[in-house]
Amino acid sequence: MILAGGTGRELSVLTRHRAKTALPFGGRYRIIDFCLSNCVRSGVNDIAVLAQYKPKSLIDHIRMGKPWDLDRRTGGVFIHQPTYYGEATQWYLGTADALFQNIETIYESDADVILVLSGDQVYLMDYGDLVESHRRSGRPATLVCKKISPSQGGRFGMVRRSGHGLITEFREKPRSASFRYASLGIYAFDRRFLLDALGPDKTDIVFDILMPLVDQGGVTGHDFDGYWEDVGSVGSYYRASMRLLGDRSMLFETGRDVFTRVEDLPPARFARSSAVAGSIMANGCDIKGAVRNSILFPGARIGRNAVVEDSIVFSFASIGVGAVVKRSIIDKHVRIGTGASVGVVAESAPGAVSLETTGTEKSPAKGIALIGKSARIAAGVRIPAGFAVEPRVNIRERKR
Questions:
Q1: Bridge partners for 387 per DSSP
Q2: Is the CB of residue 389 less than 8 Å from the CB of residue 356?
Q3: Consecutive sets of 10 residues in the chain, 400 residues long: mean pLDDT of each?
Q4: Interatomic CA distance for residues 255 and 249, integer angstroms
């Protein structure tokens, strides 16, 4: 059961039109690709994706599941959304409620262990190890945990463990530095226990199911020491992307392929006028300018004398002649005009837009500019660092 219904509010304009799990990552992937690929490599071929918020991009991407070899007669991948059953339509009220609204899927399964996974995380894992660890424990539930630095504890649900791996305490984002293990939001449940635990009065997996079970001594921890990142904010998404440029091996291991639906495009083209360093380029890119320390998705176009630096450019975005883009995330089908700049000037500079300009707001990540899908930035316009431009907005206004 993959939880994929979050709104992704902290990702600002990047999730105005798509589910967080459908956010592009790493030059060719979507975030959910990592969870789906982990499942397939681990022999888990019966998958329900519980979607809710703006699921079109997610549905278009997954389709019948062919890239993951999930287009099969038995099992496969299915996308479940809140459904009308003759009474008032009820959106998923939380993680446990999402499972309860799809409890028939659990009832009809012949599995003895149900994995409950978050679809908005970037990591490589063999769930077979988790299942075996869970079975050996003899407990109703197992959660995956990772040792982190005390300074990071405020970001996560934190657990305390006994010497035998039993979870003895679970606190949500505690300030105490005595907790060393973060819960990664990856769980294994006995099927019978989960069916009994779910109900109309249960909203959240952590607060309504796991915490009471911890008090009863029913939860064990499974260690994970590999790379893992919850990319639920602009800052964490940007940091994870830039880290990938410096350490490609963190997500690319022999025998641990990440599968995805690829664009049917020709190889990338680099003109004589181009200059590229320390970057990732996908197929279909057309590079005539300079690209440094950046990630370009399929079909991105960089004009002559343009400069793209420390940035992420999504599919089929176009950076015009002489334009400059720094520390920015440019969504799909964006057009940045000749001589325009994004993320490189102060608000007081000539030609810069202000926060009063229609269709702009403050970026949630300091110093990172965001341009929403299909937005148009006219020639000569300057979008300062720390601004966000809404999707499909045409920015022409200048400040005198």
A1: 362
A2: no
A3: 85 92 93 94 93 88 88 86 66 90 92 94 94 96 90 80 90 79 95 95 94 96 92 91 85 83 92 96 97 97 98 98 97 97 73 73 88 95 92 74
A4: 12
Query: What would the 3-class secondary structure string for 262-294 be?
Result: CCCCCCCEECCCCEEECCEECCCCEECCEEECC
Dihedral sign (CA 216, 106, 132, 204): negative
Distance (Å, whole) CA 29 – CA 77:
18
Locate tokens 């899927």: which residue?
105
Place of tokens 């939380």: 94
Neighbours of 227 (CB within 10 A): 18
Identity of residue 354 = S
Q: What are phi and psi of 107, to 5 degrees?
A: -55, -45
Report how far residue 77's alpha carbon sits from residue 326's, in angstroms, rounded to the nearest whole number.
Answer: 39
Report how far Cα 163 is from the mean position of its chain's Cα atoms. 33
How far apart, in whole angstroms, are the C-alpha atoms of residue 13 and residue 16? 5
Stretch (H or E) spanning 143:
strand 141-147
Q: What sign does the dihedral 62-183-136-116 (CA atoms) show?
A: negative
Q: Can you tell me the distance from the alpha carbon of 146 to that of 150, in angstroms, rounded to the nearest whole number? A: 12
State the residue for tokens 């959910």. 32
The DSSP annotation for 38-87 comes to HHHHTT--EEEEEE-SS-HHHHHHHTT-GGGT---SSSEEEEE-----SS
Q: Which two tokens stand for residue 89?
A: 């339509």
Close Cβ partners of 104 (under 8 Å, ≥ 6 residues apart): none
Scanning the structure block, which residue is given the tokens 């079909």? 299
Which residue type, as a one-letter code, is found at position 372? G
